[in-house]
Structure to design on (139 residues):
């Protein structure tokens, strides 16, 4: 098994993603962990709420992983995303990639997060001290 695709309402685990992609044949592991920041556009963020169309999101995440495996010289890839309310500092998304050499891992990791934000039907609502707003898929 070369891919780990997961959507969860519970806390995501960096260690689980790392453990999945780790392999003695790989000299590089690249990990991207998106975190909930405390401000956007000069407004204080209090929390984020992620929702999505889970069956399609899982299929799209698998497509991204499959394309990364075919396009880059990587060994394994994990793409995990959280749904629900997340507090400042929480992790809504993790991408982990292993490869024999670091460049392929870096490139595949960036490809995966950029494509996920463009194609996967997961949306976020930002909450502020004075209200909330749905955020476009692109910052």
């Amino acid at each position: 098994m070369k891919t780990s695709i997961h959507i969860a309402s519970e806390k995501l685990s960096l260690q689980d993603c790392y453990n999945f992609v780790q392999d003695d044949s790989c000299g590089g592991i690249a990990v991207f962990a998106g975190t909930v920041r405390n401000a956007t556009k000069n407004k204080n963020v209090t929390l984020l709420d992620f929702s999505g169309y889970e069956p399609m999101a899982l299929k799209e995440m698998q497509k991204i992983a499959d394309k990364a495996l075919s396009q880059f010289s990587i060994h394994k890839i994990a793409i995990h995303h959280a749904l629900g309310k997340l507090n400042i500092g929480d992790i809504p998304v993790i991408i982990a990639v292993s490869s024999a050499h670091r460049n392929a891992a870096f490139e595949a990791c960036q490809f995966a997060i950029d494509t996920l934000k463009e194609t996967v039907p997961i949306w976020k609502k930002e909450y502020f001290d004075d209200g909330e707003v749905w955020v476009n898929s692109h910052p």
About this structure: The first strand starts at residue 3 and ends at 8.
